[in-house]
Amino acid sequence: MDISELIQVHTIGYHLQDVKVNFAHDIKIDIPEVSIDAKHGEILSIPRWVSDVLSSEKLVEVQDTDMVVALKQAIVKENVQGDFDLSTLEPEFYIKMNSFMQRLPQQDRDKLESMLNSLVRKRQGKIIKLADSSKLTAESAKKLTVEERALFDYIYNNSAAFKKQVLSDKK
Predict the structure, then answer these.
(1) Are residues 139 and 161 in the same domain?
(2) Residue 168: per-residue pLDDT
(3) Is residue 14 domain-shared with residue 77, that is, in the same domain?
(4) Domain tally, the chain
(5) pTM (2 decimals)?
(6) In angstroms, rounded to a whole number, what is the distance separating the alpha carbons of residues 102 and 104?
(7) Interval 82-124: pLDDT, tens
(8) What is the DSSP letter of 47?
(9) Which residues contact 161 (CB under 8 A, 6 or more apart)?
(10) 147 near 102, Cβ under 8 Å?
(11) Is 127 in the same domain as 159?
């Protein structure tokens, strides 16, 4: 499974998870796999993909993690770690960030994207150093997102192949 397929599987899983929503209108929906009978002001947990549709129509307000706060916290945590130490990000962190950013106005999205880029650059540098120097430990694996794990594996395997190719004549 390549990285894009892996991310797609995790994205689908993320959209199947339940999220709390506050209903702005009385709603009654009864389709296969989803049945909702909610009154204005009621808070219920519904599948995220359903909340995305209802939210786009201004029928619900999603009560989700504030990803701006989560991103700022992630940046601070990453900055206090050493050059080889990664802070822990949940496996779907980037998937959540991208989903959150899609709901923002362009100006807010641009600001958040700039912050996200700084986090990605810092973590990418650390992952490159780690992947070039050692195998992935269970402790390090828990700190990586889905995408970062694929990056680590790619760099580790290619670095090992490069070293083998370059150093094989000297043995």
Answers:
(1) yes
(2) 75
(3) no
(4) 2
(5) 0.81
(6) 6
(7) 877 899 999 999 999 998 898 888 999 999 999 999 999 999 9
(8) E
(9) none
(10) no
(11) yes
What residues are paired with 63 via a beta bridge? 20
Task: Indicate whether 82 and 155 sit together in one domain.
Answer: yes
- Of 11, 28, 63, the last residue of a domain is 63
Calculate the alpha carbon distances from 41 to 6, 21, 27, 57 in Å: 37, 9, 11, 16
Q: How far is 83 from 127, CA to CA, in rounded Å?
A: 10
* Rounded-to-integer distance, Cα 130 and Cα 128, Å: 5
Same domain, 32 and 111: no
Closest CA to 154 of 118, 124, 121: 124
Same domain, 163 and 125: yes
The range of the structural domain enclosing residue 151 comes to: 67-170
State which H helix or E strand residue 85 sits in.
none
Do 44 and 124 fall within a single domain?
Answer: no
Q: What is the DSSP string of 101-164?
A: HHTS-HHHHHHHHHHHHHHHHHHHHHHHHHHHHSPPPHHHHTT--HHHHHHHHHHHHHHHHHHH
CB atoms within 10 A of CB 149: 18
Amino acid (1-letter code) at residue 118: S
Length of the chain (residues): 171
Kind of pairing, strands 43-47 and 34-38?
unpaired
Pair (140, 103) in one structural domain = yes
Whole-number Å distance between alpha carbons of 127 and 121 = 10
